[in-house]
Amino acid sequence: MNDVVEIENLTKKFEDVVAVDNISFTVKKGEIFGFLGPNGAGKTTTLNILVTIMKPTSGLAKVAGYDVVKHPDKVREKIGVVFQDTTLDKELTGKENLWIHGKVYGVPSDRLKKSIQKLLVFTELVDWADVQVKKYSGGMMRRLEIARALIHNPEILFLDEPTLGLDPQTRVHVWDYITKLREERGITIFLTTHYMDEAEKLCDRVAIIDHGKIISIGKPEELIRLIGEEVIYVKTISNLRFEEFICSLQKAEFIEEVRLVGGETVRLSVKKASEVIPKIFEVAQKFDIHIQEIRYHKPTLEDIFLHLTGKSLREEEAGPMDHLRIASIRRRGFHG
Amino acid sequence: MVSRPLTTIYVMWYRQVKRFIRAKSRLVGSIASPLLWMFFFGVGFASTFNLPSTKEILGGVDYLSFLIPGIIMMTVYFASFVSGISIIWDREFGFLKEVLIAPTSRAVLIFGRSLGDSTVAVVQGLVILAIAYFLVPGLMITTLPLMVVSTFLVALFFTEMGIAIASRMRSMEGFQIVSTFVGLPILFLSGAFYPVDTLPFWMKVLAFINPLTYGVDIARKLLVGVGFFPLYINFLVLCVLTVTLTFIATWIFQRTTIE
After folding, report:
1. Residue boundaries of the structural domains of chain B
2. ipTM at complex level
3. How close, in Å, is residue A245 to chain B by CA atoms?
């Protein structure tokens, strides 16, 4: 059995809203598979179905060979999950969190002890093992959660936005752990993210999801090649001959694709930008187009996403209001 | 499939107890409120109603002695009800989500948690009892084992009630409404502050279907020797209600998903 996650025509509806719209894909054993898309694209919903806390409206989802609806308990034994919002018990210490998890998963005591020690070393939390989690930093909590998800030796690790809300340095740190995990344990990793760089850096394969549909799937390099070797952005001051300028670029054999992005910016997919740029100036001169700015780079998944959906990724707006609300209710208390 | 139910129960119990010990402010807060009731309400009312006729109505004891068993049960009741309801936070924002994906029976998980919450509530009640003993040295402490049993039954009942309500609640907003319109009437209609048998008929009916009434009645009989029902009836009613509600709450909770 080579596919550890198999999804066929999976759909999830919330009343009238279709959160996941008839998606199908597989994840191979040992790969890091990324689910990339903006907020509300259906990433977390899909993950929730795969980890058995939501039921699909229709379609089939199998994890580690077991149907998530028919055999949720079998699935639960095989998976480790790190949710987007922390699920640690902050009153307890790091070690206690790991211990409770191991016990609930039925890990024998002697093995549990060793496992906790090994994972504390792996996540560099040994010195913090007996400190209450509420004193941890965001990055430490995330590491502890990864450690906890691994206590029972799962075959597949699910990570929902593993670096959301972390500072850049800590993100890189968490990436290192994820890469190391795969190298040392050969574990399959399924992660969701709305960070392009994260998907590009970590994942063997990426599925791009938007509005509940998978719009593209493949290796990051393959996806990137969809729009050529290099991309050039040309920002102009448009004049009456702007259309002619565009047409002429479209006809040029040294340019693979021309696309307007924004009113006066043109994106060109080319083989070798450094050789093409002088030619662009020549064309521009012919039509009296004034070039304001020109830049080129290797395409990233960001370019792909823009290419496929016509929009860039929205930024995260996690709900601080929710947390405030709870805090205020807790303070108000019960005795009235 | 069910990986050692007993271990799971123990671990969940341990977690609740440990959390209580860790959160020192919670400990102080949970004891301060009943103490204020006991000192200001109790001592105040006791000096107002210091008449022979009051003693007769109260079954032959002074008001403070009458009130203390009520305050102890009130402490247990509030503590357990609130911790039962608090699974709503656990569910939406953390720990419970993590245990919901454990390959263990949810019934066992939630039962372990309930036992932990009940233990914590009993401890709080006993702390109040210890303090009350200095105020009214005449309390009968020899009945302590039965006090532990009865407070535990009351605690388990209201923890399960909290869980049942929280399992159906979809938002935090309901919490205030529930605590006002369910929480307070149960307390007022329990005989904790005034005797049940002198109440108007409709209130008496409500008091008799209120589980807390039986808990308060037991505590009063055990501590000051005054009671309305025979002890065995009280215990029988409480046992039946607690066991029944445990099954109902577990069933409701098992159907909980995150959506």
Report:
1. 4-254
2. 0.85
3. 53
